[in-house]
Design brief:
The structure holds two protein chains of two kinds.
Chain A (H helix, E strand, L loop, with lengths): L10 E2 L7 E6 L11 H9 L4 E7 L5 H11 L6 E6 L6 H8 L5 E6 L1 H5 L5 H20 L3 E2 L3 E3 L4 E4 L3 H12 L4 E4 L7 H5 L4 H16 L3 E4 L3 E8 L2 E7 L3 E5 L1 E4 L15 E2 H10 L7 E5 L8 H18 L2 E6 L9 H11 L2 E4 L5 E5 L2 E7 L6 E6 L1 E4 L9 H8 L26 E3 L9 H19 L3 E3 L5 E3 L9 H5 L5 E4 L4 E4 L9 H5 L5 E3 L4 H4 L9 E6 L3 H10 L8 E6 L7 H9 L4 E6 L10 H18 L7 E5 L5 H9 L12
Parallel strand pairs in A: 2-3, 2-4, 4-5, 8-9, 8-14, 9-10, 14-23, 15-22, 16-17, 16-22, 17-18, 29-30, 29-31, 31-32
Antiparallel strand pairs in A: 1-6, 7-24, 11-12, 12-13, 19-20, 20-21, 25-28, 26-27
Helix pairs in contact in A: 1-5, 2-3, 6-8, 6-13, 9-10, 10-11, 17-20
Chain B lengths: L8 E5 L3 H12 L3 E5 L25 H11 L5 E4 L2 E8 L6 E7 L14 H5 L5 E3 L9 E3 L14 H5 L12 E7 L1 E4 L4 E2 L16 E3 H10 L14 E8 L20 H15 L4 E6 L9 H11 L1 E4 L4 E4 L5 E7 L4 E7 L1 E6 L1 E2 L4 H8 L1 E3 L5 E6 L4 E3 L9 H20 L15
Parallel strand pairs in B: 1-2, 1-9, 2-3, 9-22, 11-18, 12-13, 12-18, 13-14
Antiparallel strand pairs in B: 4-5, 5-8, 6-7, 10-19, 15-16, 16-17, 20-21
Helix pairs in contact in B: 1-2, 1-9, 6-7
The chains are: A alpha/beta, B alpha/beta.
């Protein structure tokens, strides 16, 4: 498949003479004391491109909407700027009412960001005017983008045939999708069928395996690995080895399971699985004293604790030997685990808790465990006939190489899913690739099944529309400027950029692109621009007169500013909020232009790392701003004239702290 | 997202993170969703929590929950009924499976009309009007019915007179309506443990003893914890784990408290790290039984807490007030095998998760088994089209709730597409 090339026709050039209508709303006249509306209206009228100014009291109500519609219908308006409250109050009704006209609508917030947070009406009005000016400047440079429809291949590739992979495949097959299920092992079932500790899990895996094999919609390929994956969501092209099969699919579900376990866990130790097999064969009935140990090198999870307690109880009941469990923490947060513990204790299992991992001394035919019991404070030295330890994950399980092949980011501790809250539950950050089961986080087997179900649902929902319209706002490459340096390819958080070897230029897949703008800011040749957040739009020349310019991430800082307004938390009025889709879009050039236009300070406020909707947009911005600060220092400028901070959407306090400086909680405005 | 809108209707009971996540999933699959919430806003318990980021994110997932609450209003096919309760469920008359009777006590301030101007709140003599969901950045206002003068027999209509959009209406009475639905998802959440019941820990009487929930609420408005008595940052803080969890005491409802709440270690360790970072020199101590595992970064978090905090395996016997409003903790010191006393500026009780108050009522109404601890048994929903998810099936955190919501909605979608082949337990429906 060839990569879809961007055509010149995707963008309509901005209209030569935009005619902007500005809709001002004084919120049922509640803002008329805080803002000087007649003065603002008069000033806005003089702004270039503004054809009409409408001052309303009830923009969010049916009467106000009707007034807008009648005023705008015959004025040859092309753009509409709403200067009112937070968009959530009016957006839905207004967009519906104005849909027929095809206006280009943008918004600025003069209530939460001006009237409610500044007690001086003159300063607040001045700020409101500044925000409106900025918004009209930005809006006049806006491009209309034509939506495009892309059909989606309905076949799904599932990698890994453990519980999660089989569950996902079956559900998808039932929902009508063709499924290719590949596994590098020679049979279905994964770890669940190979273990004997949890017979229920093994039975369920066997059952699922037979259903998968009987299902005609599922093609099972054993001893097969993914060699490469190209293309985009809806049109992936997978190459499999060793058969060298090329497979086209619309979506990929990764269910490769937990890290492979090392075997044996230490010298002279059995693994839990070994112990389970011994118990099955019921040999060694002459044992008098055995032990099971948790938290030996790493802290173990609930699954290991469950296995340990079940095995200890089984051994105690079968062999009637003294059975010890050594641990640092007894993890009973799983469902009904407290019951497992009670049962084990009732069967006569002795649990010894230690503050740190006990010493294990190997002896001939036995093993000695020494440590200090934390509850009795007594040292102990127990000679055991047999000691079993929880499995320890091996370092490399192939997940890292699979992840780099799928371009889904670096793994942490051998887990597939990146550490980002917005990926929960099963997303990868790369559109069309999902994770299911314990490859994304360690989980117990019933949860693995539920996760397989969840991934199947997500996959089904993504593929259901059979064709999708691509969002209108996205990054564009100018091939004539592209130096083919691969910076964008490496920095795109969503694996949306490919390289056109013939044209020697980067190509952005409109399907995969999430419009964060990281590539546009990283590109050294300035060959990439982002529609709606273009360099021209963000390099504003409004006089900032010694104030602070805040580049505010629309996912966090802008909402925090809304909340500051709701709480009437005062901050300096000589501030200008410039919304950006992600601070990853903020380029040093934008900062320098703001300073050039008279700003005293530039604040770049975005989401916390690992809570950035665009994966590492904030990390990139931090690196860039830190570099800029270093350059400021070298040039003898104050580095603090540009600062970067992180906060979450509800963190109004932190927002005000950033703007006012620390330890200066502002007074509240008005009677609230 | 889906092109075809199904005729199938789903009732989701509970507007917390589980209910909201499930509702949005179901709606994007083309189903019509009625989401009912007993309170005056969506968000449930998660809306009470604050961000625990130090310089870096600690992945408490609160921002994810808030993001879902913010976006639910933009999803079509979700009909939200606030201040509503499910009264009864009977077989559906019009071809649908069930008829659900929902009782609604209309909100005094109509959220659709409220423009959050705040005039009513500034004029209210009883100060009983406030934003319903301030954590979401934008919000309508809501009235605290218990403190409203007009609702308590006095003559006051100041708020409705001043409202510029006429959003305040005292005349609307309660009403009930019947909804024809094909499936019901119960996501009624949990009750935080009532620490007032833990007499020996003096919550409510000793000024600087707060609960984990109080701490979370504080973190919503400020970036660190302050002592309630003098609003100063504490220099020594103690967390007491397992308050209301893993305990022999039984609730009045006779459910056993012998289970781990699964979330308290996580939030205590995260808030501890936040305090240790925000207040240099602050000493944080955690009194614990066993530190429970959570999340994928557990090992590094545990190591960090092990190095920087004082972890003591002990269950304090009592707390008592001491000089300078500090709190004296009496506990058995495991290192020295004797009873010790230590004073702390602030003590946080890590309260656990208790089953929802009306779990029995729902269980009887919909024929679901309840386990000995008072949570729904998700594998024992006997009637077709009845599902349970979230913390009402057992304690879990935000990520766990979202997992459960996603899995439950997957089962509902499968069930709605082919009701005959019902998803049994966790496995997907049907067999070949």
């Amino acid at each position: 498949m060839t990569i879809q090339k961007q055509s010149k026709f995707d963008i309509k050039k901005p209209r030569r003479n935009p005619r902007v209508a500005v809709l001002l709303c004084d919120c049922g006249q509640t803002l008329s004391d805080a803002l000087d509306f007649p003065a603002i209206t008069a000033a806005v009228r003089k702004l270039p491109g503004v054809a009409q100014v409408l001052c309303l009291s009830d923009l969010c109500q049916p009467t106000g909407i009707a007034q807008c519609v009648s005023a705008l219908s015959d004025a040859k308006i092309t753009h509409v700027l709403v200067a009112a409250c937070a968009p959530v109050y009016y957006q839905a009704v207004l967009a519906q009412a104005l849909d027929q006209f095809g206006f280009f609508i943008s918004r600025t917030n003069i209530r939460e960001h001006c009237a409610w947070v500044h007690s001086d009406p003159d300063a607040a009005s001045e700020k409101a005017l500044r925000l409106i000016k900025l918004a009209t400047q930005r809006q006049r440079l806006a491009n209309h983008v034509v939506d495009r429809t892309v059909r989606l291949n309905q076949r799904v590739l599932v990698i890994g045939a453990g519980l999660a992979g089989m569950q996902t495949s079956l559900c998808l097959a039932h929902a009508g999708h063709k499924v290719a299920l590949i596994t590098r092992s020679d049979s279905l079932g994964g770890r669940a069928v190979r273990q004997t500790i949890l017979p229920d899990a093994a039975a369920r895996a066997t059952d699922l395996a037979s259903k998968v094999q009987a299902n005609r919609k599922i093609t099972v390929l054993t001893n097969t690995e993914l060699r490469s994956l190209t293309g985009q969501f809806g049109h992936f092209q997978a190459h499999l080895s060793p058969t060298d099969v090329a497979l086209s699919c619309g979506l990929v579900v990764v269910a490769t399971g937990q890290a492979q376990l090392s075997d044996p866990p230490g010298p002279g130790l059995l693994s839990f699985e070994d112990l389970s097999l011994l118990l099955r064969k019921n040999r060694l009935s002459s044992l008098t004293r055995i032990g099971l140990i948790l938290d030996l090198r790493d802290q173990q999870d609930c699954a290991a604790t469950r296995a340990c307690l079940k095995l200890a109880r089984r051994a105690r009941e079968l062999w009637l030997c003294e059975t010890y469990v050594f641990c640092q923490h007894l993890r009973v947060a799983g469902s009904d685990q407290e019951q497992d513990y009670q049962d084990a204790r009732q069967a006569g299992v002795l649990v010894v808790k230690t503050a740190s991992a006990p010493q294990i001394i190997e002896q001939v035919g036995s093993v000695c465990v020494t440590g200090t019991d934390e509850q009795t404070r007594r040292p102990f030295a127990l000679t055991l006939d047999l000691l079993a330890a929880a499995d320890i994950p091996k370092g490399d399980n192939g997940q890292a190489s699979l992840n780099s092949l799928l371009r889904t980011g670096k793994t942490v501790a051998g887990l597939a899913q990146r550490d980002n809250v917005f990926l929960l539950p099963v997303d990868s950050g790369r559109k069309g690739i999902l994770f299911a089961g314990s490859c994304r986080v360690s989980m117990e087997w019933p949860q693995t099944l539920a996760d397989g179900l969840a991934a199947a649902e997500q996959a089904h929902l993504l593929l259901t529309p059979s064709s999708i319209r691509i969002a209108a706002q996205r990054a564009q490459v100018d091939p004539s400027k592209c130096a083919f340096c691969l910076t964008c390819y490496r920095t795109c958080p969503h694996g949306a950029i490919d390289i056109d070897q013939d044209g020697r230029a980067a190509v952005i897949s409109p399907v995969m692109c999430q419009a964060c703008g990281v590539c546009a800011s990283e590109c050294p040749a300035k060959a990439i621009d982002l529609v709606d957040y273009s360099d021209d739009q963000l390099c504003t020349t409004t006089g900032f007169a010694g104030g602070t310019v805040i580049f505010a991430c629309e996912n966090s800082a802008l909402l925090a500013a809304d909340r500051a307004g709701l709480g009437r938390m005062a901050y300096s009025a000589n501030t200008t909020i410039t919304p950006v889709c992600c601070v990853g879009r903020v380029d040093p050039v934008h900062v320098l232009r703001a300073l050039q236009a008279g700003a005293r300070k530039v604040l770049v406020l975005g989401c916390h790392e690992q809570a950035c909707k665009y994966m590492h947009g904030i990390n990139r911005a931090k690196a860039r701003i830190e570099r800029l600060r270093d350059q400021f220092t070298q040039l003898g400028l104050e580095p603090d004239r540009v600062q970067i901070g992180t906060l979450m959407a509800a963190d109004a306090g932190r927002f005000v702290e950033f703007v006012n400086g620390p330890n200066a909680p502002g007074p509240r405005v008005g009677g609230l | 997202m889906a092109a075809v809108v199904s005729e199938k209707r789903i009732l989701v009971v509970g507007g917390g993170i589980t209910g909201v996540s499930a509702a949005s999933q179901l709606a994007s699959a083309g189903l019509q969703v009625h989401l009912i919430e007993r309170g005056d806003h969506l968000g449930g318990q998660a809306l009470e929590f604050g961000c625990k980021a130090t310089d870096t994110c600690q992945q408490c997932n609160v921002c994810l929950a808030l993001d879902r609450f913010r976006t639910i209003s933009q999803i079509s096919n979700v009909y939200t009924h606030l201040s509503s309760r499910l009264i009864s469920v009977s077989p559906g008359p019009n071809g649908s499976r069930y008829q659900a009777t929902v009782f609604t006590q209309p909100l005094l301030i109509d959220p659709a009309k409220c423009i959050a101007c705040g005039l009513c709140a500034s004029i209210c003599p009883a100060k009983c009007i406030s934003p319903a969901t301030p954590a979401l950045g934008s919000s309508y206002y809501a009235v605290d019915r218990s403190r409203c003068l007009a609702l308590n027999g006095q003559d006051c209509s100041k708020c409705s007179e001043v409202c510029p959009t006429g959003a305040i209406d005292f005349s609307a009475g309660p009403h009930s309506r019947d909804l024809d639905v094909d499936a019901i998802l119960l996501a009624i959440g949990y009750e935080p443990y009532d620490a007032l019941g833990q007499g020996t820990y003096g919550y409510g009487s000793i000024p600087n003893v707060i609960t984990g929930l109080d701490a979370e609420r504080q973190l919503q408005d400020s970036t660190t914890l302050l002592r309630p008595s003098d609003s100063r940052p504490p220099t020594s803080v103690a967390f007491i784990q397992c308050v209301g969890s893993r305990t022999q005491e039984t609730e009045p409802s006779a459910f056993s408290g012998q289970y781990c709440s699964a979330v308290c270690c996580a939030y205590a360790m995260r808030i501890s790290r936040l305090l240790a970072q925000k207040t240099p020199g602050a000493k944080v101590t955690i009194f614990y039984m066993d530190l429970q595992n959570f999340g994928k970064d557990y090992q590094s978090l545990y190591n960090d807490c092990h190095d920087r905090l004082c972890l003591i395996r002990s269950r304090p016997s009592r707390l008592s007030p001491a000089d300078n409003d500090s709190v004296l903790v009496t506990y058995e010191d495991p290192q020295q095998s004797r009873v010790s006393r230590r004073a702390f500026d602030l003590v946080v009780l890590s309260i656990g998760i208790r089953p929802p108050a009306d779990v029995r009522r729902f269980a009887d109404m919909l024929n679901i088994d309840v386990d000995e601890h008072g949570f729904f048994d998700s594998s024992a929903c006997y009637r077709p089209g009845i599902f349970v998810a979230g913390t009402c099936t057992g304690p879990t955190d935000i990520a766990g709730s979202i997992d459960r919501a996603t899995a439950a909605s997957a089962r509902i979608i499968a069930d709605a597409n082919a009701p005959g082949l019902r998803a049994g337990g966790l496995i997907c429906r049907g067999s070949q």
